[in-house]
């Protein structure tokens, strides 16, 4: 039994036909970790009506559904089911656009890659980021401190459901994090935010699904929270908690990317107000394959 399997004590019932990658995104682990947790799952095809093993501590309260009585269980022996009754879990329910994966990095131009992070407190938070191939190298200017941003002037463009305080908070969250790494601070660009707002509204209209798109030339991080008022710092901390120097491109590397000079973020509420999605676009884009966040 693998170390992941040994720690498995929670299972998640699944309906529909999500892929292993979509389920890995849902429980906020890599595809490799998902396969180690669920060694009997055949990831060459979608999973149909089954229980899957979730990582320790994952909160399934907002996500669980009642799977059919004869659903297969893809969990190691000794694991226990934890199946609270709630709304249906169907990670494959999305629009007909192009889906992205968080486990493959293409060498073709502008190949997006997504990854996810979840923080379980009283809410559920999910995030994704994009990765693109290199076109040029930009040296990062040196900076050791970040100043808190002042209240911005009334925007001439849309930032979705974000308040003026939200704009300050998300900008400060980025700059405090970047300052701790010696990266230059970023400014909030309302033109970039308008692009982010269009995509945030689109994602919210599909139940706060997380799928990259609509960012044009920019980089992009996504986050979703189910329940409660969103905290910009809390959502950002989900990105910043990822490993910067583990040989992968993720939310943290995009947020810290040396050559990024401005951000534009927006939020939108899903139908009925049960979820909120946050979109942050980055200019210039980061997460270029083969390059380091330290130099951009």
TrEMBL record:
Gene3D superfamilies (alphabetical): CAP
Ranges where the SCP domain occurs: 165-290
Name of the protein this chain belongs to: PR-1-like protein
Protein species of origin: Rhizoclosmatium globosum
Entries under InterPro entries matching the protein: CAP_dom (IPR014044), CAP_sf (IPR035940), CRISP-related (IPR001283)
Pfam families found in the cross-reference section: CAP
Transmembrane parts of this sequence: none
Superkingdom, natural source: Eukaryota
Region (Disordered): 76-129
């Amino acid at each position: 039994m693998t170390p992941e399997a040994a720690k498995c004590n929670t299972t998640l019932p699944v309906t529909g036909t999500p892929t292993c990658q979509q389920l890995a995104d849902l429980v906020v682990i890599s595809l490799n970790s998902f396969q180690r947790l669920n060694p009997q799952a055949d990831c060459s095809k979608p999973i149909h009506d089954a229980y899957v093993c979730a990582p320790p501590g994952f909160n399934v309260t907002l996500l669980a559904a009642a799977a059919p009585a004869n659903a297969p269980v893809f969990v190691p022996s000794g694991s226990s089911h934890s199946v609270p009754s709630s709304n249906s879990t169907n990670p494959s329910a999305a629009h007909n656009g192009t889906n992205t994966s968080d486990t493959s990095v293409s060498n073709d131009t502008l190949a997006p890659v997504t990854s996810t992070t979840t923080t379980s407190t009283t809410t559920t938070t999910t995030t994704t980021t994009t990765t693109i191939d290199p076109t040029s190298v930009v040296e990062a200017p040196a900076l050791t401190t970040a100043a808190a941003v002042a209240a911005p002037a009334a925007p001439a463009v849309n930032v979705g459901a974000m308040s003026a305080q939200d704009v300050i908070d998300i900008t400060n969250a980025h700059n405090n994090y970047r300052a701790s790494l010696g990266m230059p601070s970023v400014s909030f660009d309302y033109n970039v935010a308008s692009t982010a707002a269009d995509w945030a509204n689109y994602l919210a209209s599909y139940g706060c699904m997380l799928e990259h798109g609509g960012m044009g030339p920019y980089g992009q991080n996504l986050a979703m929270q189910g329940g409660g008022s969103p905290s910009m710092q809390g959502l950002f901390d989900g990105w910043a908690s990822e490993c910067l120097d583990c040989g992968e491109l993720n939310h943290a590397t995009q947020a810290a990317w040396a050559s990024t000079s401005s951000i534009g973020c927006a939020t939108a509420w899903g139908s009925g107000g049960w979820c909120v999605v946050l979109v942050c676009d980055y200019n210039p884009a980061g997460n270029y394959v083969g390059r380091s966040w330290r130099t951009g």
